[in-house]
Amino acid sequence: MALEDTQKKIRFVTLFPETGFIHLIKDVGMIPYTMYKNYNYDASIATYQNGPYLYLDNEVKGLKLEFLDRSNNDTKDGIDYLTHNAPNIDVLHLFHLSQRTFDWIHVYKELNPNGKVYLKLDTTEDIKGADRGFWNWVNSALTKCHVVSAETLEVCKCLNEKWPIRVEYITNGVYECPKRLIDYQEKENTILTVGRIGAPQKFNEVLLAAFKLAHTHMPNWKLKLLGPSSPEFQQVMANYFLESPELKDKVILLDQTADRSLINEEYKKAKIFCLTSRWEGFPLVFPEAAIYGCFIISSDLASARDITGNGRYGETFPVGDSQQLAELLITTSSDENKMKATCSDIQQFARDNFQWVKICQTLHTALSNPIANKN
Question: Which of 86, 171, 278, 319 has a beta carbon 3.0–4.6 Å from 82's, enabling a disulfide?
Answer without folding.
Answer: 86
